[in-house]
Write a structure and sequence with these properties.
six-stranded mixed sheet, Rossmann fold, 771 residues, binds 1-deoxynojirimycin, five-stranded parallel sheet, alpha/beta, Immunoglobulin-like
Length: 771
């Protein structure tokens, strides 16, 4: 791939010969043997839409075409207003407009007053809800329940479409294996199989059966590609990914999202192996269009076209516009270089007009499919009824309950029983913005139920609930979302005030039967430009936790965060730990229901949980080398094993997994095996378990990971209930891109297979794949 990356983009969108060597991903769209030119016919959809759009393109000036390729956020520094730009046909899309009246007004300008009556497309980051905030995506992945995730995004789409938003910049499907990277929060974690299932589920949730389904919106899979591999976990830094890792780990969730029908793709900020993703013709043409058959349109990330100059890739903004358009960026987000420079570049022969036509065609076809040419308006009355409706709240609460992961429960401290007094302590216990999490720009803190409020409501009739913050978390740097929504500002300004508050909190713990400490990170510590070099609990939270435990009172730690944190001490001393993530609008009610046992935690970790930031990047699916898998040989000063493994999570009941069987000992390449186990609820309450299937290929043309997730199913069982769980193992999922053969194939041989309840699953057998 490095050779392909070094090919300077040509001035046509023709397929490069090098791309013929590209591998297949999981049997997805095969590349024909002969070189294909990138004709418009490779990007077609139904005839009626095409006829309409082609007719329209025939009437458009070059400036109007480039206008369709331009997305605007706010008024631009040159002073032109939104309205002027729309009337001149200089805007194809807006982002960040969420008021239905303003959306209708702008649509009216475009459709009634614009020369060609072309509707606008309104995009917004509906990442985990619009006004009703669902748990952050990493949390939703922890549900290990794609149907649940699809439902949550369908509800989010319903709310968003009701205000006139047509397009979300989600799902984010970047694999994240380094917890220091703040945007781990927005994805599904470390694993390509889980990530692919979550990617497809979200696309279905946002878009419905097809683009243009009523009450749905267009999905945008991002950030293509490899953003999650930022060096050192530092946001925006380069991603250097081997071909093997790219094809086998980083690209599969994109392929799954495209296969599920995602109508748009966003480029990434960073360079992938030296070539900025926004100018990366290999990614945008050879992989996305030619190999995967993507038919939608590509949008850049925020100012990432102009920033091709920052990368030292383009000589100036005009060169940036030319190279981004030529690479395959169809719409530019915000930096305005397309609008300012592309028409002249076309006239000078630097970009072909056919390249512009292809881009405009894909954008207009999408607008057509979304039904915007038929009816671009929304009803503000309908949206008022939809926003934070009862149905939305119920869905958000279920999502939060199903996302929580129980990490520890010594002596079955949870669910709480019989406590007459509860101390709810911590800087996040009653913080509405932090309960919502990052990327909840249209959320209203006032709609949000905090953990303290939830506990008061759930336990208030039977227990005295006392609360205080104990400590505050100071932000090290301003958030990029400052002014939009913020965590409460520290009010304890002197050391004396801080000491008094700390002691007050510990006194409350002493006076109570049980203490619930709600600790973690401010929402602004996760997300964009929110990477951390350490994973410790920020501020004096660890000290507070240790002091609370030292009182001898039972302590429950509720974590609010969106990356693993260093809780090594807590994992040995705090009897109960519930990972609630940033649980959203109904988060407090969901946490209270879980603490009270009205709901049972059943989530599982979508990431390996480190003991220390020094272990990062940490992931279960590593290769074996030299000395067999002994975690004590990898570091001189500590274990290399995670604190909690990928796939881990407890329940209020217990389960056994037994009687592992496969439908055959041998399976033909391309065929399927049925794997069955008996799952039994051996405890006293109803609970959920996620049965997980892992495989390992013993030998082949390349070393393969010690274990790879290849199947899972979440189930609910009553006390004493047994169920035979059948998981289908498709040998196509055993294929991989080999760095020796430079091809994707299923290699015959012996495989280990484990089934269990996390990535250390013990039930084991083997099977053989034959040609
Ligand atoms: C930049 C982020 O990287 C991207 O994920 C987001 O969709 C855009 N800004 C628009 O907000």
């Amino acid at each position: 791939m490095s050779l392909l990356h070094s090919l300077r983009p040509a001035l046509t969108r023709r397929l490069t010969a090098g791309s013929l060597s590209l591998a297949l991903l999981g049997g997805f769209t095969a590349l024909p043997a002969e070189t294909r030119t990138h004709t418009t016919s490779s990007r077609t959809s139904d005839a009626e839409a095409e006829g309409f759009v082609d007719g329209l393109i025939g009437k458009m000036t070059l400036e109007e075409k480039v206008g369709q390729m331009s997305q605007v956020a706010l008024n631009t520094p040159d002073g032109a207003t939104r309205d002027e730009r729309v009337l001149k046909g200089e805007v194809g899309s807006f982002l960040f407009v969420t008021d239905p009246k303003e959306i209708n007004r702008l649509q009216h300008l475009a459709v009634e007053k614009g020369r060609l009556h072309i509707p606008l497309i309104f995009g917004f980051d509906v990442i985990h809800g619009l006004r009703t905030i669902y748990p952050v995506p990493l949390a939703m992945a922890a549900s290990w329940d794609p149907e649940q995730v699809e439902t949550a995004q369908r509800m989010a789409a319903r709310e968003a479409s009701s205000v006139g938003i047509n397009w979300t910049f989600a799902p984010m499907v970047d694999i994240a294996r380094d917890a220091r990277w703040g945007r781990m929060m927005e994805g599904a974690g470390e694993d390509p199989f889980l990530g692919s299932r979550m990617a497809a589920a979200q696309v279905r949730g946002f878009q419905g059966e097809k683009i243009g389904s009523p009450d749905h919106i267009l999905a945008c899979v991002k950030h293509f590609a490899g953003y999650g591999a930022a060096e050192g976990g530092r946001d925006y830094d380069s991603a250097n990914i081997s071909d093997e890792q790219l094809w086998n780990v980083y690209l599969p969730p994109y392929a799954a999202a495209v296969k599920a029908g995602a109508g748009s793709v966003m480029t990434a900020y960073m360079d992938l192996n030296g070539v900025p993703a926004t100018g990366n013709r290999w990614l945008l043409q050879d992989v996305l269009r030619e190999k995967w058959g993507f038919k939608g349109f590509v949008v850049s990330d925020w100012e990432s076209v102009k920033n091709l100059t920052t990368h030292g890739f383009s000589v100036d903004p005009k060169d940036a516009a030319v190279r981004a358009a030529d690479a395959g960026v169809d719409m530019e987000m915000t930096s305005g270089t397309f609008r300012d420079d592309l028409p002249a570049a076309v006239r000078q022969g630097l970009v072909k007009e056919s390249t512009i036509d292809e881009a405009v065609r894909d954008i207009l076809l999408t607008k057509y499919k979304l039904g915007l040419f038929r009816d671009p308006y929304v009803s503000p009355e309908r949206s008022a009824a939809e926003l934070v409706s009862q149905a939305q709240r119920e869905a958000a609460r279920t999502a939060a309950e199903r996302s929580a992961v129980l990490l520890r429960n010594e002596g079955n401290l949870l669910p709480l029983r019989g406590a007459k007094s509860i101390a709810v302590i911590g800087p996040l216990a009653d913080s509405k913005p932090d309960t919502m999490g990052s990327w909840s720009l249209a959320g209203h803190p006032d709609d949000t139920v905090t953990v303290l409020e939830g506990i008061r409501k759930r336990f208030g009739a039977s227990a005295t609930v006392n609360s205080t913050t104990g400590v505050e978390i100071e932000r090290a740097q301003p958030s990029i979302f400052d002014g939009q929504f913020e965590s409460p500002k520290p009010t304890l300004t002197t050391d004396g005030q801080q000491e008094t508050e700390f002691h007050h909190a510990i006194d409350l713990v002493k006076q109570s039967d049980v203490a619930v400490l709600v600790l973690g990170e401010l929402q602004s510590m996760s997300g964009e430009r929110a990477s951390r070099s350490s994973l410790t609990l920020p501020g004096r939270q660890e000290e507070l936790l240790e002091a609370a435990v030292a009182t001898g009172k039972p302590v429950v730690l509720v974590l609010m965060n969106a990356r693993p944190l260093d809780i090594t001490w807590a994992s040995a001393h705090v009897p109960a730990i519930l990972e609630a993530w940033y649980p959203g609008t109904e988060g407090g009610n969901a946490v209270a229901a879980l603490l009270g046992g009205d709901a049972s935690p059943g989530g599982k970790l979508p990431v390996s949980w480190p003991r220390d930031a020094g272990q990062e990047p940490l992931y279960y699916s590593h290769n074996l080398t030299q000395i067999p898998n002994d975690p004590d040989t990898r570091y001189w000063d500590g274990s290399s094993a995670p604190l909690y493994p990928f796939g881990y999570g407890l329940s209020y009941t217990s389960f056994t997994v037994e009687r592992l069987k496969t439908s055959a000992e041998q399976v033909k390449s391309g065929g399927k095996l049925t794997v069955s186990v008996e799952l039994r609820n051996t405890g006293a309450v109803t609970g959920d378990e996620v049965v997980q299937l892992y495989t390992h290929q013993r030998s082949g043309s390349a070393s393969r990971p010690v274990r790879e997730l290849k199947g899972f199913q979440r189930l609910t069982l009553k006390p004493g209930e047994r169920k035979t769980v059948e998981l289908s193992l498709d040998t196509n999922d055993l294929g991989f891109w080999s760095p020796q053969t430079h091809r994707w194939s299923i290699e015959p041989g012996v495989f280990d297979l484990w089934v269990g309840t996390d990535s250390t699953a013990k039930e084991h057998t083997t099977f053989t794949v034959v040609q």
